[in-house]
Every structure is written in structure tokens, then in C-alpha cells.
Specification:
The complex is a heterodimer of chains A (455) and B (159). With 455 residues, chain A is mainly beta. Chain A is 15% helix and 40% strand. In chain A, the strands form seven sheets. In chain A, strands 1, 2, 3, 4, 5, 6 and 7 form a seven-stranded mixed β-sheet that branches. In chain A, strands 10-9-8-31 form a four-stranded antiparallel β-sheet, with no helix packed on it. Chain A has a four-stranded antiparallel β-sheet with strand order 11-12-13-14, with no helix packed on it. In chain A, helix 4 crosses helix 7. The relative contact order of chain A is 0.10. The longest helix of chain B has 21 residues, at 100-120. Chain B has a single domain, classed as OmpA-like domain (60s Ribosomal Protein L30, Chain: A). The chains are: A mainly beta (455), B alpha+beta (159). Chain A binds chain B through residues 189-193, 195, 216, 218-219, 232, 237-239, 259-260, 262-263, 276, 278, 280-281, 283, 304, 306-307, 320, 322, 326-327, 348, 350-351, 364, 366-367, 371, 392-393, 395-396, 411, 413-419, 422, 446-447, and chain B through 61, 63, 96-102, 104-106, 108-109, 112-113, 131-132, 136-143, 147.
Chain lengths: 455, 159
């Protein structure tokens, strides 16, 4: 978090239901199906995203500009998640200024909006105050009214927080817009690639590099507090896992392992890191306590055990091993006991990652029929396997904090012997397998990791 | 299992070359004694010239030294025997048909396998370090079987 963001977190006032009229439900939007389950009906979502109108937030002077920018960020978030259909602003009848005062619901009803978002921005010299209201158009009810105050520079985070409120109120589950993504930015030819860590908001904005590229950095992962990153680096020649604080400071090697350490992930309580360490011809899973820095070996013998990931309750670990001959997924208890294989489909399975909801494990599958790579999900007992997307090369799924969307990276093959045509880009997809989108980054990209919600 | 005749022959040539060189005149080389070009003894180029190659290749998802690759490692061991001051890093690599983390571990296994073969060939283990780059530093940039076969490799690099 930058100093500005810290300041914002401190000063942010978030008064839910400030204006009263906190709706208890949405008669027009929440039918019996949604009332029964906090998970939106996937089939409905794919074919019938919620039509929503988001006129520019009203304001004067700087407030007008910020109000317009906030509305556009909100529209972008809602559209990209695939569960909303923002109504084209060209169809709007009532002006944004008038709607911010008193919505004329029939004007929004006739253009097909089921939900309406209005807002007002008061821009001071260095701070902004943003009021927003979410309306259910058919019964003409206010669902939510909230005011945010923050340093003016942080208007984007306000837009993301508003997007998260809209998502949660209309879909019944938490959003994921106030988040960031850390990833590996790649430049140069593949045999002399520069790989450095970069971080950006989930919508690609506020992009910045975290390492200078003088040594390769790979596989970054967020601490549950979103302030620390574990990653692998060749900074001192030998590849090792390092910890890095986003507040600043230098990356610090983790543990005292004689060989290579790789594939780190934090435990859900943030007090330890699970990783893989090579010794001889094996790679085994270890847990390193971040307080004592003591390491504990969890697996041993006869294989390459890599890519460990905790279950969200911290009780289990899923990992990737070739102990049975080729790469498959295994689950064990967090102390290393009770190892059992969970993947039995065609091909090899790798990079397992547990959904924050706990209900699914996402993975990379490859080498089966056709030799395609795919990103899929299965239940933690191995049942219910579904491949969400396939292609020439792809790997490394990471879940948004609500478990609803995944990001991964997708490669295209070289067309010639000089590597022309090769690319590596980030993509996101709904866990139901729809709404696959490329995430724009300034350079080629790999190894995305989605942060927890920032607030 | 080691071809001692061959190994001895290459060791002798390498020793001769090493004797003729000095640090100051390294750039002038000892071409006549070795390959007819200006190659500095104990250098990467010298290794390649004397051992025939600085790398060995592997089958898909395997770290077993292939029979057709053993002679290369034997010649590398012989060359190292004749250049006792040289230390090397064995770099393990994979092709792009796998995931990054697993390939890092597989590349390490390949580097270990090549190192172990050099040790069996008489090279002190302390002269050989290993490192894995997984699939991240391909030698061939294409996306086809030919490129992948070239990229599944362990490379002996003079430090």
C-alpha cells in the first residue's frame, strides 16, 4: 500500500445506510432462486446479466470530472465481471445531475435498467467526498446509500469500493474490485528474458514495477494482509524464495535451505509460508514459521513435490507431485499426514490452488488427448472436474478473493525458429467457464497472483 | 562404464593445452595444439572443442542420462580432469511443455544427473555447482519437437 493509500485507509469513512432506506431485498431482482443461495445462478448470469444504469456522478468543478471518472470505472468493473450489463449512456433520458437529486424511475425503466446507481462528488482542495446510492428501479426503492471521504488522489479506490457494494447488494456475495494483482512482467527475447515483478489494480490501472529486472523474479504470491509478497528470485545466483514488503525495503531470503527453494504460498493466517525445497534429486514440501523462521519438513522421498497451497481454513495442503510416475495432485493434512491423490483424469495436473471459498481446487492440466493445456477446477476430493478453458499453453490460476473469478496466463506458440509470434498474456475467467477476457498489461506477463480485498 | 581410453586421450590434449597457456596470453590461444583455432584453454570454447559439446539432452519429463549422451559427459569429465583449476556450473533446463514450478524442480534434477555423471567420471564434486532455470531460458526459440529436444538439456558452463 502506498503512503497515500494508507492515509486513505485511515481516513476513509464508510457509512453504510447513511441515508436510511436500507433495502432488505430486491423484489424485482432477487427471485426465489437467489434468495435460497448466496451464489448467483450461473446459467442465468451468463445469459442474462443484470441491466444497470450508471450515469456520471454529479458535481461541480473538479467534482464533475471526478464524478465522471468514478462512474466510468464502476461501469468498467461491472461490465468486465460478466454479471452486469451496463445500459448504454446514449440511451439515458434523465440527466445525471437530475438523477443524483431525485431519480425519475420511469425514465430508467423504459431504457431497460433494473438497477440504477447515482452519486455526487464534492471535491475539496485535496480531499473528495463521494455519496452514492443504489436503486432498485421497478419498486422504486433505495437499496444502499453510502458516503466515502478520501484524499482526492484515491478516487479510484472509492470507485472500486462502490463497485464492490453494488456487486454484493445485487448478487449476494462479496465483490473483488478493490484488489490488486502482482505478476511477472516479461520483456526481451525468450532466451534472454527480463522478468520483474509488477503490481497493478485488478483493472490494470496504477501499474508499477517492483523489481528492476537485474535478476529474474518468478511466482509472486500475496500475504493475506496484501502488504507482503513471497516470490522466487535469482538475485544471489541461486534461486531462492524471498519475502518483500510493498511498503519498501529490500527482498529478504526466507529460510536456510541448502538447495533451491520455490513455489511459496502464505498460510491463511499469514504466520507461515509453505514452499518446496530441492535436496538431492527430490523436492519436498516444507513449512517455514515466519516468527521463529524454523522450518518443518512435510513430505519426503522419491519425487518432485512442488506448488503447495493451503486450504482456506489452514487444515489441509494441496500440492503437485510426480511420486506416482507423472505429475498429479495430492492433498494432505497441514502437518503432512494422510497424503492422498485427488486427480485421475487424462494428462498431467499441476499448479493447484485452493479457492478462498474452500469448495474448489483450480489447476493446470496438460499432456492429455491433443496435448492441449487447460485450466480447470475440481472439488477437494477430486470429484466434479471441469476444464474451463483450453489452449496451446496456459497455467497458473489464481482466485479473486470471492472465489468467483480466476486469473491465469495464456501463451501462444512461436511461429518460427526465432521465437516470433510467441506471447504470454494474463487472462481472467469466471469459475463457471464463461467471460474469458485478456487482462491488458504493458508487456508480456505471467504468474499472476490476486490480492485479498484491500479493505 | 567410463570409456577410459577416450577419456585419457582428451585429458592429455587438454593438459598440453593448459601447459602452453598463461593468464596473460590467454587471448592468443593455443590453436595448433588443439583445434586449429584460437581457443583459450580452460574456456567454454575449449570445453566445447574438446568434449564435442557442453550439453547433454534428455527425454521428455525425464532426468535419466540417455545412453547416447553418456560419451559427451565422459569427454567433459576428461576435459575437467585436464583442467583442474576450472570450476563449472551445470545448468538444468526443460522444454516449454510443462508448468514453471515443476520444470524448475525437473531442471534441478537434470543438472544433478549431469553433475553425478561428471563425478563418476572422476571430477571432484566440489568443482561443480548446479542451478536450474526450468523452462525459462530456452536455447531454441521455436515451439516444435525439434526445439523442445534442444531445450531439454543440462549445460556445463565454465565459471
Amino acid at each position: 500500500m502506498t503512503p497515500d493509500e494508507k492515509a486513505m485507509a485511515g481516513f476513509l469513512t464508510r457509512r453504510a445506510a447513511l441515508f436510511g432506506g436500507l433495502a432488505l431485498g430486491l423484489p424485482s431482482l432477487s427471485g426465489p432462486a437467489r434468495a435460497q443461495s448466496s451464489v448467483v445462478d450461473i446459467t442465468r448470469a451468463r445469459t442474462d446479466p443484470i441491466p444497470i444504469a450508471v450515469p456520471d456522478f454529479a458535481g461541480s468543478g473538479d467534482g464533475q470530472r471526478v464524478g465522471r471518472d468514478i462512474a466510468r470505472v464502476v461501469v468498467n468493473n461491472l461490465k468486465n465481471c460478466g454479471l452486469f450489463r451496463p445500459v448504454d449512456r446514449a440511451a439515458f433520458i434523465q440527466t445525471a445531475e437530475a438523477a443524483a437529486a431525485v431519480p425519475r424511475f420511469q425514465d430508467w425503466r423504459v431504457i431497460g435498467a433494473q438497477a440504477l446507481v447515482t452519486g455526487r462528488v464534492d471535491a475539496g482542495s485535496d480531499r473528495v467526498r463521494v455519496e452514492f446510492r443504489l436503486w432498485d428501479v421497478l419498486p422504486e426503492q433505495q437499496i444502499q446509500g453510502t458516503a466515502f471521504t478520501a484524499p482526492a488522489a484515491n478516487w479510484r479506490r472509492i470507485a472500486h469500493l462502490i463497485s464492490d457494494v453494488i456487486y454484493e447488494r445485487l448478487l449476494g456475495e462479496k465483490g473483488y474490485f478493490d484488489t490488486r494483482v502482482v505478476y511477472v512482467a516479461e520483456t526481451g527475447p525468450r532466451d534472454r528474458r527480463t522478468r520483474r515483478l509488477a503490481i497493478m489494480d485488478q483493472d490494470g490501472e496504477n501499474h508499477r514495477f517492483l523489481t528492476d529486472g537485474s535478476s529474474a523474479a518468478l511466482t509472486p504470491r500475496f500475504h493475506p494482509n496484501a502488504q507482503q509478497i513471497a516470490f522466487m528470485s535469482y538475485a544471489r545466483g541461486e534461486p531462492k524464495v524471498y519475502l518483500f514488503n510493498l511498503d519498501g525495503g529490500r527482498p529478504e531470503p526466507l529460510g536456510n535451505f541448502p538447495g533451491m527453494t520455490l513455489s511459496p504460498r502464505f498460510s491463511p493466517d499469514g504466520r507461515s509460508v509453505v514452499l518446496s525445497a530441492t535436496r538431492g534429486n527430490d523436492a519436498n514440501i516444507y513449512v517455514v514459521d515466519l516468527g521463529s523462521r524454523r522450518e518443518r519438513q512435510l513430505t519426503s522421498g522419491g519425487g518432485l513435490d512442488v506448488s503447495p497451497c493451503f486450504s482456506p481454513d489452514g487444515s489441509q495442503i494441496v500440492f503437485n507431485s510426480d511420486r506416482g510416475g507423472d505429475q498429479q495432485l495430492y492433498v494432505m493434512s497441514a502437518d503432512g499426514g494422510g497424503i492422498r491423490r485427488i486427480s485421475f483424469g487424462r494428462g498431467r495436473y499441476a499448479t493447484p490452488v485452493w479457492s478462498p471459498r474452500g469448495d474448489l481446487i483450480a489447476f493446470t492440466r496438460f499432456g492429455g488427448a491433443g496435448g492441449q493445456f487447460g485450466i480447470g477446477v475440481m472439488r477437494p476430493d477430486g470429484s466434479g472436474e471441469r476444464i474451463l478453458t483450453e489452449g496451446w499453453g496456459m497455467e497458473g490460476p489464481t482466485f479473486a478473493p470471492n472465489g468467483r473469478v480466476m486469473m491465469f496466463f495464456r501463451e501462444s506458440p512461436a511461429r518460427d525458429a526465432r521465437g516470433g509470434g510467441y506471447s504470454s498474456r494474463l487472462a481472467s475467467i469466471d469459475v463457471a467457464g464463461f467471460n474469458e477476457r485478456q487482462i491488458l498489461t504493458p508487456t508480456d506477463a505471467s504468474d499472476p497472483a490476486w490480492s485479498p480485498l484491500l479493505s | 562404464m567410463i570409456n577410459t581410453r577416450l577419456l585419457g586421450a582428451f585429458a592429455a590434449i587438454a593438459l598440453l593445452a593448459a601447459c602452453e597457456s598463461s593468464k596473460d596470453s590467454a587471448a592468443t590461444g593455443t590453436g595448433a595444439a588443439t583445434t586449429g583455432s584460437t581457443i583459450r584453454p580452460g574456456s567454454q570454447e575449449d570445453l566445447i572443442a574438446q568434449a564435442g559439446s557442453d550439453r547433454v539432452f534428455f527425454d521428455y519429463d525425464s532426468s535419466a542420462i540417455r545412453e547416447d549422451q553418456r560419451p559427451t559427459l565422459q569427454r567433459q569429465a576428461g576435459w575437467l580432469g585436464g583442467n583442474p583449476a576450472v570450476t563449472v556450473t551445470v545448468e538444468g533446463h526443460t522444454d516449454e511443455r510443462g508448468t514453471r514450478e515443476y520444470n524448475l524442480a525437473l531442471g534441478q534434477r537434470r543438472a544433478n544427473a549431469a553433475r553425478d555423471a561428471l563425478v563418476v567420471g572422476g571430477v571432484a564434486g566440489g568443482r561443480i555447482s548446479t542451478i536450474s532455470y526450468g523452462k525459462d531460458r530456452p536455447a531454441a526459440l521455436g515451439s516444435n519437437e525439434d526445439a523442445w529436444a534442444q531445450n531439454r538439456r543440462a549445460v556445463t558452463v565454465v565459471r
